[in-house]
């Protein structure tokens, strides 16, 4: 018997030949039970067209795994096999999990601080543009991307997609009971590309920007679609499920539907990837147990509610949409780079996370936020600078601290680490009440110019320090004794 | 009989010799009845020290006025006289009144758009500094100033005043029943100086920044003080009464006191000057009938509540404190000039009014907001630019219009005049739905660079116009056909 090896949190894939007649997407049931020591995990397979069936599995433990298939078709049933799960390769830290209520880490314990961006329909653009998007992402600070499964019809984005998710055509209509494997193979390829870049794919399962009918398929088709995509994608460690973008603008579905769809995803996903849903105006009730974190859109420039939402839901708060750097006419897409960077700093210092987007007018309507391509803005460089500061911090998590007052925010860890941020205020000095009996080293950070200026000496207790008297200044205070 | 002339809204002053013994401030009652045609107005006189009593009167109608004095002292009683009220001199438009619920005009009907500043303790500084303040004001766009009667004890302002309002001394304490006429003569001189510059004196009657006991004199002394200052100052047409600054920080007085003090001022003031009260955190109930307008402090950078407050109170909304241009450590005093100018534009376009202040660190702690002196900031020039735009508008009042949307504000008059303001958003284009069947000329205004760029041609209906794609841009649209 040939021996197979799969790295931990890699993908073990079984390919089987089976029936191509009838409608295999509907008629054929296929699962596999994966067994390791005392554990059995049941995984759904899927039909990949042309008589090919696949089952994908992401092992989470090293050692020997056995499997056996289950199907209502004899040729797919009772297939057995095994593989050896070996240690993960460099850069593979497993899927992202919640840590300490408000934060994240990879499954191997490595901290994960989301610094996301938004390219809703990048996979539906011409191949060369997709490649350019990946090139851009590779050089960027972003480790999460919000992206839609379905093509998008919206301002600056009205082209037809490369592939359609179902059999049929724009002219003849769609057979929602027959998936187009080519579409999903392409989606998977792009999720894998992101995985190799260390980028979490925040996959948006439904959205309202639709002219094809994919937003309005009815409950049966919706659920079949959800089970299918979970079967295909959940073995990718970098997958997050976003039930919808602007769910409250999807007119055909109500809260009961969303509750049900959350549960379908939750029940079908053997790995329990992160799950959320993104609002336009009205929050979905994030306290529901199947919601792992908040994925918020806000229309206000200040992120002062992060603290309130942390307390209320005891979950991580991701401001996944707070406007984009750009110059289009809509208020959500014409922030200055300074303002988007300010929101990133505000969100992080308040103990939340913020997602980037870019919407500069382009002669061919190639706006990053919709189509990807190249980044032209000034914020990514500053977001990288902030990300480095967060990653270098002597603490894994930034939470609100007592040094926050009405006119300045300060995150970090009480007594250990403080990151104080003044936003567009521009004090030329500041009195700070550091804990007594501990000594801190202090850096003045110009978050826009990306300079870090250490102050001479160590500081303790009530101090007054000089500041540059310009906006976008932070003070970093690290306990050294 | 000698004939006297006083201009309309000027001051006719009667001086009488009377008793200097005992305590004339308490013991002597003095009034005059002024009569013109069918009207009689009763005016309180006051003791000015050294046996001198005065009665001041501001006539509001041209023609012959007669008077007779009333007193509990024979030597002050039953004095008669008359004067001829003549038409006002250039620049004298009378006191400011409320117009159309949300706005102001002078009593002669001339529109008045408040563009105020703040110099709380300017009259308590050395004379040369006061003169400098007046010089600065003369060149400034400001037509209202918030200023305290009592000296101020606060950060950057701990010097003793030139004069004290009562007999006594810091060492020996004060006799609150005996006013210091020198103090009040000086105050009046400065109010008159402002009047001559066309500046409304928004006179703050109480405030909490006190080390002398003036914030805590007890009800009897408070009321005597109020009646005395109203008797002395109400004939000045440029007087506004601000019952207090940060009234909710004055610990010795409660809402019942403030209600009562409002009524004392209202009852004593024959001319019904504008009356308001300024909060720290908690609004006084502006719906009370003796409040003529809102004098608001807000701690948030956006002024989106102006519309709500207009609807709720049906009174003018003055944002008398929304932070100051400066660089001190406190968040209320380290706005950039850009941000303060943005707040001015936002307030005006929302149908409200905004007050300036400046708080730059100074080697001798001469901060404009407390002490006056010189303006060093970049906002006054831009406020002047905005003021000119408002004054040149073909409408007297700016109210919210239907062109306001979630991401842009637009004030003006429906169908006639629109002033659309983008704040720190920076669209490179904008779709605007102008009324059909009317033609508009359009100017692009860079509110920071202070440029006005007319667009070629006339515009009607749904249009899309190019914009500079930078912050602080406004669009002015004026109906021409």
UniProtKB/TrEMBL annotation, chains A, B:
Residues 406-477 form the DUF5605 domain. Residues 7-71 form the DUF5060 domain. Gene3D superfamilies: 2.60.40.3950, Glycosidases, Immunoglobulins. Residues 99-363 form the Apiosidase-like catalytic domain. Pfam families: Apiosidase, DUF5060, DUF5605. It comes from the Bacteria. PANTHER family: DUF4038 DOMAIN-CONTAINING PROTEIN, LMO1036 PROTEIN. This is DUF5060 domain-containing protein. It comes from Caldicellulosiruptor owensensis (strain ATCC 700167 / DSM 13100 / OL).
């Amino acid at each position: 018997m040939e021996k197979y090896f799969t790295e931990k949190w890699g993908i073990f894939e079984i390919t089987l030949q089976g029936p191509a007649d009838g409608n295999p997407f509907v008629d054929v049931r296929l699962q596999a039970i994966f067994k390791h020591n005392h554990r059995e995990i049941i995984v759904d397979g899927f039909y990949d067209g042309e008589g090919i069936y696949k089952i994908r599995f992401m092992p989470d433990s090293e050692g020997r795994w056995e499997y056996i298939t289950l199907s209502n078709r004899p040729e797919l049933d009772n297939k057995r096999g095994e593989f050896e799960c070996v240690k993960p390769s460099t850069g593979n830290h497993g899927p992202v999990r919640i840590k300490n209520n408000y934060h994240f880490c990879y499954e191997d314990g490595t901290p994960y601080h989301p610094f996301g961006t938004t390219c809703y329909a990048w996979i539906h653009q011409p191949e060369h543009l997709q490649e350019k998007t990946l090139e851009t992402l590779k050089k960027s600070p972003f480790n999460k991307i919000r992206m839609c499964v379905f093509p998008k019809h919206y301002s600056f984005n009205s082209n037809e997609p490369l592939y359609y998710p179902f059999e049929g055509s724009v002219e003849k209509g769609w057979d929602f009971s027959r998936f187009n494997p080519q579409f999903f193979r392409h989606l998977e390829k792009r999720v894998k590309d992101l995985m190799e870049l260390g980028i979490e794919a925040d996959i948006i399962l439904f959205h309202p920007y639709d002219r094809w009918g994919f937003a309005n398929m009815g409950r049966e088709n919706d659920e079949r679609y959800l089970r299918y995509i979970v079967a295909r994608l959940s073995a990718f460690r970098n997958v997050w499920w976003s039930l919808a973008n602007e769910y409250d603008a999807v007119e055909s579905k109500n809260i009961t539907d969303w509750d049900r769809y959350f549960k379908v995803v939750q029940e079908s996903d053997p790995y329990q990837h992160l799950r959320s849903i993104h609002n336009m105006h009205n929050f979905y009730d994030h306290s529901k147990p199947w919601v792992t974190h908040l994925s918020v859109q806000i229309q206000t420039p200040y992120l002062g509610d992060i603290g309130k939402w942390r307390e209320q839901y005891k979950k991580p708060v991701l401001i996944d949409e707070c406007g984009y750097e750009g110059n289009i006419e809509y208020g959500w897409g014409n922030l200055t780079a300074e303002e988007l960077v300010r929101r990133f700093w505000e969100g992080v210092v308040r103990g939340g996370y913020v997602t980037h987007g870019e919407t500069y007018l382009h002669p061919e309507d190639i706006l990053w936020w919709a189509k990807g391509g190249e980044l032209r803005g000034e914020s990514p460089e500053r977001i990288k600078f902030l990300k480095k500061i967060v990653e270098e911090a002597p603490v894994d998590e930034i939470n609100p601290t007592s040094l926050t007052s009405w006119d300045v925010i300060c995150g970090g860890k009480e007594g250990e680490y403080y990151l104080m941020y003044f936003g567009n205020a521009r004090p030329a000095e500041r009195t700070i009440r550091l804990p007594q009996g501990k000594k801190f080293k202090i850096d003045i950070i110009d978050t826009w110019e990306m300079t870090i200026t250490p102050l001479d000496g160590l500081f303790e207790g009530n101090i007054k320090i000089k500041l540059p008297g310009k906006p976008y200044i932070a003070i970093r205070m690290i306990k050294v004794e």
